[in-house]
Records
---
Amino acid sequence: MAILRPTWQDIITEHGVETWQDWPWDTWLGPYVVISPRRYRVRVRVYRAGEWVDITSRVASGAIRESNDQPVATLELRLLNGRQYPSLAPRRKDSPLNRVNGQYVPLLWIGRLIAVEAAFSEDGSEPDEWWPVFLGELEDEIDTESTERGTYVRLFCRDMAARLQRAYIAGPWSFENMYASQMIQAILDRAYSEGLIQEPVTVRLVGADDFWVERYD
């Protein structure tokens, strides 16, 4: 833990010291002030066969990217996968990481949920309350690469908003006498009812919606 002793500027400010007689010697010579640093943790997990599998120890590097110009957030990870590790390559049927109860069930596979979470503590203890930072689905960008520095599995995926990107309206759907925001809300409500998004989403407006639609087919 970090140990901090009051500086003379701190003491002058706190005690209004003007002469040496005013100096609070007991404060200066007293016990140290101990400040426990914050502790931060990040974990990465993949959901398979009804349980979350922690792969944090295999993460060599990663990045989460968000932008106002993009409708989805993205996750890029580079995972350690040399000979000293059980293989994460999806098609390695002999890897213990790709088997559940003796059956071939690859850990990194299209459609698996992947989550990045963060935690911190104020008192230096091990953090135990995790907060979601990213939740998405693995897609087909799961590749193995070998370099002079080692072998890695690289993956790229989008967050859950990708389900909306992949969705489309099948069949006729008309909107009448509605504001544009109400049309968007109707689309989101249907997406939730069909399981495309996990939780209800409410459209939030900045200012008034003045785009009125008499009919849209």
---
Amino acid sequence: MTPEQLAQALEGRRRGLSFQTVAATLKVDESEVRAAVTDALALMPHDMDAEQERALSFSRIDRMLTGVWPKAVKGDPEAIDRVLRLEEQRARLLGEPERVRDGITTAVEETIAALTIEPEDSALVASIRQVARQIDHAVAFGSSLEATKAMYLLPHLWNGLGKLGATPEAREELKKRAGGINGEGNDKRAKLRALRTQAEKARA
């Protein structure tokens, strides 16, 4: 193949055309096109050690990003959406796990809804919600490093939930310290208040 034909073959593959289609367009044998493109891709510089098809996919994404980026930085909504989708494709090629938005916040809200919250616990509940939102925001919109760092906030989240009696360990501790609390009747709020009081006294 001539250098011009090789350039056309590479361009065709970048556009997603099959080897058969490229060969028919250039009027050369398919095996010749496949061998030439494979050799050319093997020589392409790339930041990571990946299969040739992955390298080709990265090349396609880079070319598309180059074309749409000027409009995206000017605020074109359609271009911005295209850039985001291309970046998602790049992340999948890199093997990055799919990011779940608001996963922890949703779970925390379900937990809080199942509890009997005292008015004096409002600040604690607000803090728990803020930590959950902070983690979810970093996971959904931050870099991989920022998403990983956000995981260090989880112990603070568990600690806050524990103070509300919303972790297995906290519930078990409250049960152990329940002692002879039977005079509170069936009032769930009163019983929980008494359990918390005993737990706080035990920690003091």
---
Amino acid sequence: MPSATCSRPVGAESTRALWWRASIDILPLSVSVIPWGILCGALALQVGLSPLQAQLMSLLVYAGAAQLSATTLFGAGTPLLPIMGSTFVITSQHLLYGFTFRRDVLPLSLRWRASLAFFLTDEMFAVALKDRERSGRFDPAYALIAGFVFYLFWNAATLLGIAAGQYIDGLDQMGLDFAIAATFIAMTIPAMKNLPMVAATLVSGAMALLTKPLLAEVYIIISALSGMLVGYVLHRMRR
């Protein structure tokens, strides 16, 4: 991971203060994702992965919803290509996140951009975007620290799920997947501050409900693009 002191303006807060602020900001989302990580670890064991393989999924793949989907498909004997396709569709929102920060990260070195890309999650995006709105600039060190802290929580939760899954049957039936919805609600509600954001959220949700029964996992992309389009049009109309 690149040093947190790199690419920071003169007079910026100390490294310790930066670590503290980024860690505190990402902490609520990190805690909320613990049941989700436990579920990933336990489910991986149930479909036949070894404890090491289950942990490596979180260490290397590091994509919560995609991990759950890939694990479930693997357990059902699905070939590799459909699993990869499903993973791509489920994580496609990261393309939108990348476009959002494109101008901010272009001046950075490849090492910084690669590190930010690896640690980029829905949660890291949410806190980094909020920090940019608050300060008026994108702070790559802040974003990287927040992403790294979340990464530690996710892998610790996965390890806990692996350990618990070896002794407790039926962890996947305990409703731990509610943490997925709770986490996204916690990220979405604070962002609904104006009409374009509210409309984008409502349209995305409505489109997801309408298209999911018909379009399988492609509905994620369609609902997201629909919400973005409505939000963009309303934003332009207000200018």
